[in-house]
Amino acid sequence: MSQNCFGLRFGSGSDSGSGAMGVELGRGGSGGVNMFRSSAKYRLAKAQFSDEDIEEITPLNSPSRSSGSVLPYVGVASLGAILFGYHLGVVNGALEYLAKDLGIVENTVLQGWVVSTLLAGATIGSFTGGSLADHFGRTKTFILDAIPLTVGAFLCASAQNVETMIIGRLLSGFGIGISSAIVPLYISEISPTEIRGTLGSINQLFICIGILVALVAGLPLARNPLWWRGMFGIAVIPSVLLALGMAFSPESPRWLVQQRKIPQAEQAIIKLYGKSRVTELITDLSASSQGSEEQDAGWFDLFSRRYFKVVSVGAALFLFQQLAGINAVVYYSTSVFRSAGVSSDVAASALVGAANVVGTMIASSLMDKKGRKSLLITSFSGMAASMLLLSLSFTWKVLAPFSGPLAVIGTVLYVLSFSLGAGPVPALLLPEIFASRIRAKAVALSLCMHWITNFFIGLCFLSVVTQFGISKVYLGFATICILAVMYIASNVVETKGRSLEDIERELSPPI
C-alpha cells in the first residue's frame, strides 16, 4: 500500500559507494525478499578487483550503450505495478454500487470484508512471491501470477453474491501480493546502474497511476450504476498482457547465473545490454554468487540484541505509515466527500489519485538530494496538519459552510504529503538499513506488518467512523502522524550517499 502510494515501493536504494556490477545487482532494494544475499558475498565480489579496476569495468555505466533495450521489459513488469494500484483503488468508487447490487448496503462489516479480503490475500502473496521467484525464475513467476489476477478480476466482475466477490478479492489480493515482491525485484536486477534509481521509482509511480486509473474508471458510475462490474472486469486485460509480455521478456541474468545456467544468462545479457557486455557481466555475476562465509540469519536472529533495534525501526515505519490513515483515505475518500456535501465525489477522489502521482514524481527527484529522514519528517508533519484541518472542518461550526471544499483540499494535501515521504521512503529505507544476512527475513517481517495493519484498517474503518465519527478518527490519524515525527527524529538514521556496508557497520556491528 501498499506498498507504494501505500508504502510498497521496493525500488533501488542509494547507488553511492557501489562496486562492480555483481555487487550492484546484489544490493539493490527490492520487494522480493529472497533476492538478498549475505554481505560476505559482496566482499568476495569486491575482492576480485582493485578500486581502479572497478571503476574501469562497471559494465552498465553508460546510458547510450545499456539502457535502450531494458526499458520495454521494465514497462512490461510495470503492468504488475499498475494492477497492484488498480485493485487497491477500484473498490473506492465501486463499493456503494456493488453493496446495493449484492444486498449488503446496511452491513458495514461485510463491506469491510470486501475491502480487506484483498489485503489478506496480499499478505499471503507477499511471502510467496519471493520464494516462487527464486524457484521458478522471475519471468515464469510473473506468468503464474497472471492466473490469480485474471481469475480474481473475473469473479469480482461476475459476482452475484458477496461470497463470490470475497473469493475474487482474495485471489486478486494474492496476485498483487506476489507482484509487490517480484515487480521491483525484476526491475532492480535488470536496471543499469546509472538509471537504477529512476527505474526503481517507476514501480512506485505505476502503482499510483493504477490507483488513479481505478478512480477515473469510476466516473461513469453516476450514469450507470452497474458499471462497477466493468470496473473490476477491466483488470483482466493488463493481467493477460502481463503474461504475454513476460513470455517474451528475458530472465534476470543474476538469477540465471545463480542457477548455473550460464548459456541462458549470456542470451539474456545480449537481449538486455548487447553482446559486448557478456564477458564482463558473467564474470561479475559469477563472483557475486560464490559461496558465503556467513550463514543467513534465522527468524529468531531478528530479535537478537544485534539486530532488534534496526528490525524494530523497519517494522515501526510501516506501522506508522498505515496507522496514519493513508489506505482509509484511498479506500473511502468517495464516501467521505459525499458526507461532506461534495457534489462530484468520484471526481474529487480522482483528484486525490492525481495528487498521489504528482507527489510521487516530486519525491523521486528529491530522494537523493534531500535525504530519506528529512523527507519522512516533512511528510508526516504535512499529513498531521492536513488531518487536523480535515477534523476541524467537520467540527467547527464556523467552517461548516466550507466543509466540502476543505474536505477536498485537506485530503489532497494529505495524500500529497504522504507521497513525498511516508509512502516511498520506508520501503526504500529497509534494504539500506538491514544487514545483508537478515535482509530477506527482515523485509518479510516488515511487509507482514504493512499488510496486516492495512487489512485491519480496511476491515474496521467504516465501523469505527460509524461509532466515533469521522472528525475524531481524523484527529486520531493526526496524533499518530505527530508521534511518527517524534519517533523518526530519534531513531531513524540518514542513509543518503552512504554505502550499504557503512550503514551495516554502524547499525549492526558484530558482537
Task: Write down the overall geometry.
Answer: globular
Largest sheet: none
Please give the domain count.
3
The number of distinct β-strands equals: 0
Per CATH, what is the topology of the largest domain? Growth Hormone, Chain: A
Helix content: over 70%
CATH superfamily of the largest domain: MFS general substrate transporter like domains
Strand content: under 5%
Q: Write the element-wise H/E pattern from the N-terminal end onward.
A: HHHHHHHHHHHHHHHHHHHHHHH
The radius of gyration is 22 Å
If you average the pLDDT, what whole number results?
75
Ends distance: 36 Å
Tally of separate helices? 23
CATH class of the largest domain: Mainly Alpha
CATH architecture of the largest domain: Up-down Bundle
> Strand pairing plus helix content: what structural class?
mainly alpha
Oligomer: single chain
Question: Which residues sit in consecutive blocks of at least 5 with pLDDT less than 50?
Answer: 6-68
Q: What would your notes on this structure say?
A:
This protein is mostly helical. The protein folds into three domains: 68-249, MFS general substrate transporter like domains (Growth Hormone, Chain: A, Up-down Bundle), CATH 1.20.1250; 252-291; 293-511, Up-down Bundle (Growth Hormone, Chain: A), CATH 1.20.1250.20. Helices cover 74% and strands 0% of the residues. It has 23 helices and no strands. The chain is globular. The two termini are 36 Å apart. The relative contact order is 0.17. Mean pLDDT is 75; it is low at 6-68.
